[in-house]
């Protein structure tokens, strides 16, 4: 197999995690719903493109979504994981060969959609990946941030479904986000629990 070079665009806003942290002031996260939905849709478009090419990301989290001029770019393919974003099926069947697929990426996407409303990483109070893995395996998930649009919360909660076959398809998520974007009655989400 020959060598190959991958050329990536410079991301001038750092990672999605950095970008969300830049929206925090004095312990309060504030972001507009229009931007949250736009970033969510662009991540989904990128993931959809990968899945159409039969590529499973397997490592989707807020440190490997890079932001350039406020637009997300998916990067860092591989199998090193941040436990809070990993499909619980992987932990339940640990030690057995668990094939990750599109549904695994959709679980991770759900965690990212929640993070877009919180401004913080999931399970940020826990520093041990083992503890996070146990909690996810038990069915624990982050709580909805007060002020989150119910339709948006329904989307990420469906992505978090324990059973992979119950997770929505990317096209359905996009349709739900399009519908939701016409129904927004509040301009911002504010999380003061950081």
Automatic annotation (TrEMBL):
SUPFAM superfamilies: Protein kinase-like (PK-like) (SSF56112). The keyword Protease does not apply. PROSITE patterns: PROTEIN_KINASE_DOM. Keywords: ATP-binding, Kinase, Nucleotide-binding, Transferase. It comes from the Eukaryota. GO terms for molecular function: ATP binding; protein serine/threonine kinase activity. Residues 1-189 form the Protein kinase domain. This is Kinase-like domain-containing protein. The lineage of its organism: Eukaryota, Fungi, Fungi incertae sedis, Mucoromycota, Glomeromycotina.
């Amino acid at each position: 197999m020959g060598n190959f070079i991958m050329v990536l665009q410079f991301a001038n806003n750092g990672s999605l995690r950095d970008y969300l942290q830049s929206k925090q002031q004095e312990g309060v996260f504030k972001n507009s719903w229009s931007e949250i939905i736009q970033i969510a849709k662009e991540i989904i478009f990128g993931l959809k493109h990968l899945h159409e090419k039969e590529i499973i990301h397997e490592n989707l989290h807020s440190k490997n979504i890079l932001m350039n001029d406020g637009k997300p770019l998916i990067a860092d393919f591989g199998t090193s994981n941040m436990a809070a974003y990993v499909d619980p099926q992987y932990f339940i069947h640990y030690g057995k060969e668990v094939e990750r697929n599109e549904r695994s990426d959709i679980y991770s996407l759900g965690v990212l959609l929640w993070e877009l409303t919180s401004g913080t990483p999931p399970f940020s109070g826990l520093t041990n990946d083992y503890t996070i893995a146990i909690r996810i395996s038990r069915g624990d998930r982050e709580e909805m941030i007060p002020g989150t649009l119910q339709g948006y919360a329904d989307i990420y909660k469906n992505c978090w479904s324990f059973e992979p076959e119950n997770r929505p398809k990317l096209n359905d998520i996009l349709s739900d986000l399009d519908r939701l974007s016409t129904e927004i009655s509040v301009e911002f989400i504010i999380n003061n629990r950081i």
